[in-house]
Design brief:
By secondary structure, the protein is an alpha+beta fold. The protein is built from 13 helices and 18 strands. It is elongated, with a radius of gyration of 23 Å.
Length: 427
């Protein structure tokens, strides 16, 4: 029987057309919950690969699932790619850079960019589907391709589950798999057991003051000063309330107050993002944010209490140990266990993810890997100069994964993940 590496190597499609498809997706990003064009392109491409795909659209919004059944028996493996983009104005200078603008959920027009690599994920999963169609004689079971909307808002996975994902595809998967491109050296890929990504919670906080003429601040209750004091104090949560061997992040990503320099506004809005790596710290940090903001408002004599609204929520994400063990054996053989190839105890995901909900909501095991997208020559030079922290990372307007070997690694990982469980065994 051929090995998984032999199957992938002999059946991997020519990736040149997929590089073109990637550029198409990159130039036409869509904000969360607005991924209609992306989903339509995915469905159209899948139909060209095989008429045997059972395609289910509009799941939890613009979510799409495609099922390929093969043989009379075998497990069901779900492979997931997220589709949405970010309200970021691209500054890469690429010939296929996005120039698109869209209105967000609040009706405000924003620039849009695939600044987190979801265009890589979608393209890679389509190419992996092509590979699995070509290799049908080598495996048996069912593959569910899950193209998920609204990952950036933390709502897409839950929306697909509640939208009947598993009823539409004809049952629950045995294993849920996914991956993410990161600003590591292209050609590298890594797995890790247990904790893979932190939790995340985002808050929209309104501080109430009393407006006045800028020349008479004594007649005001200044929400700008109130917000500034809160921002400074919030930094002490991590430095003074979280243990040194624990991990948490508190970031104030936006403060909006007033429109003119000679007017003290009547209110200010803060947008706060928190991260944690365990449930108790997560709860404690959120309580501390609220305590500090309320205390600063009281100290300023605010006319009424601040208002808190949660805008995003991501769970902690854990990789199943048994899946990691099985994939490690396959990945190590295929990618070669060298410093610049495969790492069996790699870093956690740099951000947070809602991917695990696709498994935890139905009590099925999950595994998520990460792979690099930085040009190897650029990485090696910056590493030599001790300047790796200057690399553009996910969500940067300069984030632009190099096409190869990034795409090949991403495609192979999806295919190997599926074949680890679906490959026919010798009698």
């Amino acid at each position: 029987m051929p090995t998984p590496t032999q199957i992938v190597t002999s059946h991997r499609p020519d990736l040149t057309p997929y590089e073109t498809l990637y550029k198409h997706f990159h130039a036409r990003p869509e904000l969360s919950n607005q991924e209609s064009e992306t989903a339509a392109t995915i469905a159209s491409h899948l139909a060209t690969l095989s008429l045997d795909f059972a395609i289910h659209a509009h799941i939890g919004g613009h979510g799409l699932a495609a099922v390929l059944s093969n043989g009379s028996s075998g497990p069901t493996i779900l492979l997931r790619a997220d589709m949405d983009a970010l309200p970021v104005e691209e500054a890469t200078g690429l010939s296929y850079a996005s120039r698109r603008r869209m209105r967000d959920a609040e009706g405000v027009e924003k620039p849009v960019m695939h600044a987190c690599g979801h265009d890589v994920h979608v393209t890679a999963l389509l190419a992996a589907a092509d590979l699995l169609v070509r290799a049908r004689e080598e495996w048996s079971g069912r593959v569910v391709l899950c193209f998920q909307p609204a990952e950036e808002r933390g709502t897409g996975a839950q929306a697909m589950v509640e939208g009947g994902l598993y009823e539409k595809v004809g049952g629950l998967p045995d294993v849920v798999l996914g991956g993410h491109v990161m600003p590591y050296r292209a050609g590298t890929i890594s797995l890790r057991k247990n904790l893979m990504a932190s939790s995340a919670d985002s808050l929209h906080i309104t501080l109430h003051g009393r407006g006045s003429h800028a020349s008479q601040p004594h007649r005001s209750i200044d929400p700008v000063v109130m917000a500034a004091s809160a921002v400074t104090r919030l930094q002490t949560i991590v430095s003074r309330e979280v243990a040194p061997d624990d991990l948490a992040v508190v970031t104030v990503g936006s403060i909006v107050a007033g429109d003119a320099e000679n007017v003290i506004p009547g209110s200010a809005v803060m947008k706060v993002d928190t991260r944690a790596i365990n449930a108790s710290t997560r709860e404690r940090v959120l309580k501390s944010v609220e305590r500090i903001v309320r205390a600063e408002c009281d100290a300023s004599g605010a006319p009424k209490q601040p208002e808190f609204r949660k805008t995003r929520e991501f769970p902690l994400m854990f990789n199943d140990e048994k899946i990691v063990d099985r994939l490690t054996a396959i990945f190590a053989e295929h990618f070669q266990e060298l410093p610049q190839h495969f790492a069996r105890d790699g870093p956690r995901l740099g951000g947070s993810e809602d991917f695990a909900i696709l498994g935890t909501s139905i009590e099925r095991p999950c595994c998520f890997w990460v792979y690099g997208g930085t040009d190897p020559e650029v990485w090696d030079q910056l590493e030599k100069e001790g300047r790796l922290d200057e690399l553009p990372i996910n969500h940067s307007p300069l984030f632009a994964p190099v096409l190869q070997p990034t795409l090949r690694v991403a495609v192979d990982a999806y295919a190997l993940g599926a074949l680890t469980y679906l490959m026919k065994q010798s009698s």
